[in-house]
Amino acid sequence: MLSLALTLLLSAAAPEATTAPEPTTNTAKPQKPKKICRNDDNTGSRLKKKTCRTQDEWNNQATDVRGDVRLGGAGGN
Q1: CA distance 60 to 53
Q2: What is the sign of the dihedral through the CA atoms of 49, 58, 56 and 61?
Q3: 39 bridge partner residues
Q4: For position 51, what pLDDT does the model report?
Q5: SS3 for 75?
Q6: What's the Cα-to-Cα distance from 71 to each of 53, 59, 62, 68, 74, rounded to whole Å?
């Protein structure tokens, strides 16, 4: 009786070989751009601020700063 119960239990837990595996669809997520983190020194503070951006965002920020310098800074005299 015990062997019958174990046999039924094991057969129920074993996967069936007759079912075909379902085809998988390729739903891979697009890769996110890699973030680059830099530590910014704040004047008058011992703490550093960590800024993380993509390479394109870093490049755009550099051109924005150069444009501000040509215009006389953020104050705009």
Answers
A1: 11
A2: positive
A3: 50
A4: 92
A5: coil
A6: 25, 19, 15, 5, 8
Distances (CA, A) of 60 to 21, 37, 42, 52: 48, 15, 21, 14
Give the range of the structural domain holding residue 63, as residue numbers without chain letter: 32-72
Residue 68 lies in a domain: yes
pLDDT for 48-59, tens place per residue?
A: 889 999 999 999
Measured CA to CA, the distance from residue 38 to residue 4 in angstroms comes to: 66
Percentage helix, strand, coil for the chain under 3-state DSSP, each rounded to 5? 35, 20, 45
Q: How far apart are the first and last CA of the chain?
A: 96
- The structural domain count of the chain equals 1
pTM check: above 0.85:
no
Any domain includes 51: yes
